[in-house]
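Researcher: Sequence of Protein-L-isoaspartate (D-aspartate) O-methyltransferase domain containing 2 follows. Predict its structure.
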Amino acid sequence: MGGAVSAGEDNDDLIDNLKEAYYIRSDLVERAFRAIDRADYYLDEYRDNAYKDLAWRHGNIHLSAPCIYSEVMEALDLHPGLSFLNLGSGTGYLSTMVGLILESEMCSLSFHQH
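Model: Prediction complete. Tokens:
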């Protein structure tokens, strides 16, 4: 999934493209996306793909496409004070962005079966 918007050169380009395509509509979601660089969740040798609107999987590491994350975050109508439970949180990219919006103490617990 993904590929709905053109690739960016950096995180800001990616977010600008998501905004232009109306995937990111709220200021809260935009600020969260800009605060967390997607490339930080990639293995070094794959970072060239970080700013493409595509899902990425390498072994047990998985990131959904940025357009999917933005649709989820906009649909949840997130705001400070809410709680958030993300089952199967993977890299923690989505949970980190949501945590920035919720502005509360956050607990992350991850179980991995290999």
